[in-house]
Amino acid sequence: MLRRLAESERVRQVFIRHVFRYFLGRNETPGDAVSLQEAEKAYLDKGGSFKAPLVSLLSPKYFLFRSAKASAIKAK
Question: Of all helices (H) and strands (E), which one includes residue 14?
């Protein structure tokens, strides 16, 4: 059973989605589809490395350089 879960595309997508939710602190939106696809591609390209989707999700400029306006909206 463990092998079947490990090889399941659906399980892999759920794992990536949960990584996204945990580290970004929010649920994904339709606009996040490209980020999720890139994170999954990074995961596959690195042979299942846990670090690969994290780097993919947490390194884009929009994450690193959030505006003060976005922070103020979130604080409300």
Answer: helix 9-24
3-state secondary structure of 47: coil
Q: 38: which residues sit within 8 A by CB, 6+ positions away?
A: 56
Q: Are 20 and 14 in contact (CB under 8 A)?
A: no
**Encoding tokens for residue 74?**
């979130």
* 65 has pLDDT over 70: no
d(CA 67, CA 74): 11
Nearest to 42 by CA among 15, 61, 22: 15
Distance CA 64, CA 58 (A): 7
Helices (H) and strands (E) in the chain, counts: 6, 0
Q: What is the pLDDT of residues 5-20, one digit of tens each?
A: 888 999 999 999 999 9
Say if pTM beats, i.e. exceeds, 0.85.
no
